[in-house]
Structure prediction request, 109 residues.
Amino acid sequence: MPDGVHSALLQRISTRPDGPLDVTWLAVKSPQIPLGRIRLRWEPASRSGWDVTSYLGLTTAEVLLGSWPAAPDDWPRLVRPTLYEVTGLCAALSFATDALELSNRLSGV
Prediction:
């Protein structure tokens, strides 16, 4: 990672199985990540490969989403399925929440 950053905010996941993960660097003094967003951190592992961790933004905290110790150099390919599924789940939950709130407003609840 570049100097002055501690992690990266996941912006987009390619629909291709071997596609890229688009990220934005997060500065050391970044605020908490937004609800449903994923933060990635990777650093060289002690023996070989990369220690990769991901965090999911919730309403009041960030929670550990996954950890891949000593992942190989092509670690984005390894973590991509988990990140893809979680972003899809978060999008579906957000849509369902919006639909429920609209339904409640229309019914006067």
